[in-house]
Amino acid sequence: MDTHIGLPVEFKNTLDYAQFLDEKDPLHSFREKFYIPLINGKEAIYFTGNSLGLQPKHTQDYVLNELEDWANYGVEGHHHARNPWVSYHEIFPPLLTDIVGALPEELVVMNQLTVNLHLLMISFYRPTAKRHKIICEAKAFPSDQYAIQSQVSFHGFDPEKSIIEIAPREGSAVINTSDILDAIALHADELALVMIGGVNYYSGQVFDMKTICEAAHQAGAYCGFDLAHAAGNIPLSMHEWNVDFACWCSYKYLNSGPGGVAGAFIHQRHIADPDVHRLAGWWGHDKASRFKMDKTFLPIPTAEGWQLSNAPVLSMAAHHAALEIFAEAGMENLAVKGKKLSAYLIHILKEINKRLPDPLIQILTPEAENERGCQVSMLMLDRGKEIFDALLKEGVIADWREPNVIRVAPVPLYNRFEDIYRFGEIIQSCLQK
Ligand SMILES: *Cc1c(COP(=O)(O)O)cnc(C)c1O
What we know:
433 residues, alpha/beta, Aspartate Aminotransferase, domain 1, Aspartate Aminotransferase, domain 2, 2 domains, 7-stranded mixed sheet, 4-stranded antiparallel sheet, 14 helices, 15 strands, globular
């Protein structure tokens, strides 16, 4: 039986068994909605949906519709396009509520991830001489490190003193929740913000966001999450967990195309609070009076009030196409299958290790089901780059991180259990060479 999700003891490392799991998978047919890249004329084993998700086949239609409307209407398309451009962004909150776990009024699609991170830190990182510290994960994604450092400097503080990084303990790639909580308690009086990734991009570790957020609030600090590797991957409840703000990109698990438009969450209790500062632009201004071009900024009393510029419709059309597929598949179903795919992958990697004279693959990603999504990070103990290059030759698109890590993410919309079985075969033959 394979009904016990994530119980690797039940898994079998055979092609028959992998195909049996695919046949029983209720999301199996979704793969046909995507273009799968070819390598040597054969469909690649595409395990980098955590870096750039694949293109849905109907995305071109969505983008072409907007190009056609632009051709047909010119400026009139703002009001007369099939999806009028003035309000195009209003399509998104209902499509994102289940993915992020939020109320529609807490959501807005705008800008890019790092830009949104800055805009939200303008609102939620307001350091004072007494409270100026930020707790974040050590070796966060570089863009997040630069954003945090530059915000601290921008406010006249010293990043060396104001940024508290929490690192994994010696010999581990995973950060202990208790170490984060201890740091929050230790710095409580000086703490302004806790800002970490929902899922660590390097190890694939899922953080206990609810517990971390509670502790931050208890210390009198705000708490925000970068959901770049979480949105579309794991179940999220931003509203219920009381998170102050979050942001994410749309081109990883959300399949909305390179550099696609990003998203932001601002908790309901802040969206209409005049004490929460923000940088303002005309698209955040009250819709009824936006075109009166009045000098006084009157923010929309939802997350939309954080918008600066008018909507990038072409990029939004691709995002719209991709989110329609999420709505059809259901985020809950996707999260269950994602965890099961990675559980199967971990099972196979362990078997491969057992067959070798010395284990060659150290799995950095936590095995516990609530501590990972679909990504599995493998530390190669020998010949890492050689094996990575050999994988690509054999049709596997994975991700290489210096010094010796191969990240693979079998994603539930278009990866199959068969892909994982075949990946196991290929990596085993590379290791035996
Ligand atoms: C992918 C990723 C980014 C990329 O930022 P952009 O502004 O979209 O270029 C930033 N932070 C994290 C954690 C990421 O995973």
